[in-house]
Amino acid sequence: MAVTDEAIEKIKQMIVAGELRPGDRLPREADLSGRLGLSRSSLREAVKALTLINVLNVRQGDGTYVTSLEPALLLESLSFVVDLHRDDTVLQFFEVRRLLEPAATALAAQRMGSDEIAELRCLLDRLGDSPTVDDLVANDLEFHRRIVAGAGNPVLASMVDTVSATTQRARIWRGLTQADAVAATLREHRAIAASLAARDPDGARAWATVHIGGVERWLTSAIPPTAGVGPSTLDAIRPT
């Protein structure tokens, strides 16, 4: 194991064991390096690495602290990696979204507050029956964000939000190229909202699966066979 990796592992074990808790200040560098049997340079590199993934927070002139370790904060590094995805992987992200989001929607049917469900339906009503594609996609993102938040599981919500963001471009392309995309999205959103209001987790899961699967199927069929896969895969789908 590299020296820096060893330093990272030892700090991690201190956190896992409860020796360092969220918000705690790390001991002075000289004290901590001696306690862990590490050089000060390897300890500094470990602190830098753990700061990048939001485990530690260096406050200039004050010291180094353990962050809140909240799931949304820790998963920001996953978001950075996801942002580097290429268009040829978008179908893989849709597959992950189809596995996770229906489960979150089913949980929301059981846990989401009545006021939150009412606000969700108002969100759909404000969109109207003939929205622009940009308005529809913005509304779609907010609609799904509220539902996964309503599932009451911050880890699941952060993962779904991260994966969902990568599919935004494909959703815009669908709205521009598929004749009935807007109507289908509105219909499916209303069905999901109705299932939530009825406290029907099976119905909510089914409609969420239908909704996400529809975009996935469209994308699979819309990519021309001659386009191949690569960074410009979505650019091969031209509005008609």
TrEMBL record:
GO terms for molecular function: DNA binding; DNA-binding transcription factor activity. Gene3D superfamilies: GntR ligand-binding domain-like, Winged helix-like DNA-binding domain superfamily/Winged helix DNA-binding domain. SMART domains: FCD, HTH_GNTR. The keyword Protein biosynthesis does not apply. Keywords: DNA-binding, Transcription, Transcription regulation. Pfam families: FCD, GntR. Residues 1-69 form the HTH gntR-type domain. It comes from the Bacteria. This is DNA-binding transcriptional regulator, FadR family. It comes from Jiangella alba. The lineage of its organism: Bacteria, Bacillati, Actinomycetota, Actinomycetes, Jiangellales.
